[in-house]
Amino acid sequence: MKAHCNTSLKPFHTFGLDVHAKEIIAAQSTEDFLAFWRDDAYKMLPKLIVGEGSNLLFCQDFEGLVVLNRLKGISVSETDTHWHLHVAGGENWHELVRWTVEQNMPGLENLALIPGLVGSAPIQNIGAYGVELNDRCEYVDVLHLDTGNIQRLSAHECAFGYRDSIFKQSLKNGYVIVAVGLQLAKAWEPVLGYGALSDLAMQNVVCAQAIFNKVCEIRRAKLPDPYLLGNAGSFFKNPVVVASLGNKIKEEYPDMPAYPAGDHQMKLAAGWLIEKAGLKGHKLGGAAVHDKQALVLINAGNASAQDVVQLAKHVVETVYQSFGVELEHEVRFIGATEETSLEAICLR
Ligand code: FAD
Ligand code: EPU
C-alpha cells in the first residue's frame, strides 16, 4: 500500500480541478482495500474508490480518504469458441483494448480510447460506437468490504442498461470491483452500424485493427484530450423521452437525430439539443461547453468546481426552456463526504 503525501486531487481526476482530499492511498491488493476499511485511523472517515477519475466531478474538497484502485494482472484461457479474459480492476481499459487487438483477440475495438480502468467499466456499462461492455462481459468479481468475501456476479446479475448497472443502484456502496471477466468470440463479426463508422462498412474486408484506428481517429477529432483540457467525457446522458415529445421537436427540426428506444419512447442526442439551444462554446468562469462536442463540459483554464456546477445548471435549464427535455448528468458528482447530484446542490 502506498500513501500520497500531497493531498491534491488534481493528478487523480481528469477535470483537473484544484480540489483536495484528507488523504489519498493506492491499494495494490485486495488485502490493502480491507486494511483501509478496517484501520482504526480511517474508520470514521468517508471513503471514495477512484480509478482514473475520468467520470468524476469533485464539487468541493473531499473530507475523507480517496483509495486508488491499482490491482494488476491479466490472464487468458480459451475454448473452441471463445477467449476468456480475467482482468484485474486496476488495469487501464484502453491499453487492454489495444493489447487484445494486437494479440488477434478482436471484440473490444469499438471501445478504444475510453479513459479509465477496467474495474470502473461495468459501473456505467461503458459504451461507444455500437458496443457496450455488457456485450463482452462474462462476469464481475466484487470484494465486499464488510465481510472480505469475493462474489462473482454473472453479466445478467449486473443488470446492465444504458450507462447503468447494479453498481449504480442496489450495489452502490460497500464493495470494490476487483476483476472483470470478458469473453471474446473467435467467430468475430465487425460492428459497423454506428454512423461514424460507415466508411469502413463500405469496404469488403475490415479487420479489428482498422476499426480500432478509425475509432481512435474519430474520438481524437471530437473529444478533448483530458491531459490537455480537463473534462469527464459526456457530461449528460442522451435523454430518453416519450415519443410524443420527440416527434413534436422533430416537426420543428426534421434534421434532429433521434433513435427508437422501446415502447413509445425515443432517445435524443443531448449534444444536438445543447448546440441547438445556442450553448456550444458558451463560457461560465473558467468552465465552457466544448466547441467541437457540446455534450462535453471542459475546464478551459483554472475553472473552479462551482464554475462547472453553475455551467451544468445553466445547460440543464436552457435545454429545458428550449425543448422541454430534462437532461440528467452522467458524470458522478462528489460532495464533501459522499456522492451528491446537481439537483441536490441546486436545492441547497
Ligand atoms: P472513476 O471516474 O475513477 O470512477 C467512476 C465511479 O466508479 C466513481 O463513483 C467511483 O467511486 C466508482 N469506482 C471506480 N472504481 C471502482 C471500483 N473498482 N469498485 C467500485 N467502485 C468504483 N464513458 C463511456 O461509457 N463511453 C465513452 O465513450 C466515454 N468517453 C469518454 C471520453 C473522455 C475524454 C472522458 C474523460 C471520459 C469518457 N467516458 C466514457 C467516461 C469514463 O471514461 C468512464 O465512465 C470510465 O469507465 C471511468 O473510469 P475511471 O476509472 O476513470 O472511473
Ligand atoms: N451532435 C450535435 N452537436 C454536438 C454533438 C453531437 O449535433 O455538439 C449530434 C451529432 O451530429 C450526432 C449526434 O448528436 O448526430 C450524436 O453525437 P455523437 O455520435 O458524437 O455521440 P454522442 O451521443 O454525443 C455518445 C456517448 C459517448 C460515445 C459516443 C459514441 C453518451 C452520453 N455519450 O455521444 O460516450 O463515445 O456516443 O458512441 O451516450 C461518454 O459517455 O462519456 C461518452 C463520450
Automatic annotation (TrEMBL):
GO molecular function: UDP-N-acetylmuramate dehydrogenase activity
Keyword Glycosyltransferase annotated: no
Keyword Zinc: no
Cofactor(s) the protein requires to work: FAD
Keywords assigned by UniProt, alphabetized: Cell cycle, Cell division, Cell shape, Cell wall biogenesis/degradation, Cytoplasm, FAD, Flavoprotein, NADP, Oxidoreductase, Peptidoglycan synthesis
Domain of life: Bacteria
Enzyme class: oxidoreductase
Catalytic residues in the record: 163, 234 (proton donor), 330
Domain spans labelled FAD-binding PCMH-type: 17-187
Pathway: Cell wall biogenesis; peptidoglycan biosynthesis
Primary residence: cytoplasm
Family, per entry: Belongs to the MurB family.
Role noted for this protein: Cell wall formation.
Protein name per its UniProtKB record: UDP-N-acetylenolpyruvoylglucosamine reductase
Source organism (scientific name): Enterovibrio norvegicus
Gene field: murB
